[in-house]
Amino acid sequence: MKTKMIIILALMVLMTGRIQSQSVLGINYSTSLGVGNLGDYISKYSFRGIGIDYKGLVKDNIALGLSGQWDLFYQKKDFDSYTWETVTASGKQFRYTHAVPLLATLDYVGKTGKGMQWFAGLGLGTSYIERLTDFGSYRFTTNAWQFTVAPEAGIIYPIDGYNNVYATVRYHQNFNTQDLDGQSFISFNLGFAWGTLIKD
After folding, report:
1. What's phi and psi for 7, nearest 5 deg?
2. Distance between terminal CA atoms of the chain?
């Protein structure tokens, strides 16, 4: 799973090409909280995630981009019941969910007087979701590609020339498939970005 995620993120970097004068490329550390069905399955906050974002200005204050992310949710249950297809098992469990959203983004971009840039917009795409439930030597696995709508807001703060720190909050609304109910979550991302969207 980790190898697949690294390949996908590397391909996204190659797709962006070189950084243009009005674009940013960022790498971030992601933490997340499951909501809805995912939150019911794993209520524990996730501190295991990484993401990459690219945004390029296409006209005044409008940016298009690509975003890829990987988050791992994990929780140990000393005793609980889990139903998989027609089987219900009870006992000590180890629960995992891998979430890999791949999005195209559209943002409105602004700038404050101190050089900090901000953006707010929407991502559309798909998320690969893999759910694993371990009972001793038994493992129940479900995976699905789910349609994703992801509103987001963030800031880009310059630290030196075209080097920046950035932070975003994104809500991933993933929709039901035949194999798995929608696995939605909120991610809080902090990282480094290179470039600028709005020149001085």
Report:
1. -65, -45
2. 42
How many domains in the chain?
1
List the domain range (segments joined by +) for residue 25: 2-196
**CB atoms closer than 10 angstroms to residue 125:** 17
Amino acid at 54: Y
Residue 39: give its domain's CATH number.
2.40.160.20
Q: Is the dihedral of CA 28, 119, 195, 99 positive or negative?
A: positive
pLDDT digit string (tens) for the chain, length 200 residues: 555 555 555 555 544 444 445 899 999 999 999 999 999 999 999 999 999 999 999 988 999 999 999 999 999 988 767 666 666 767 788 999 999 999 999 999 999 877 899 999 999 999 999 999 888 778 889 999 999 999 999 999 999 888 999 999 999 999 999 989 999 999 999 999 999 888 76
pTM: 0.84
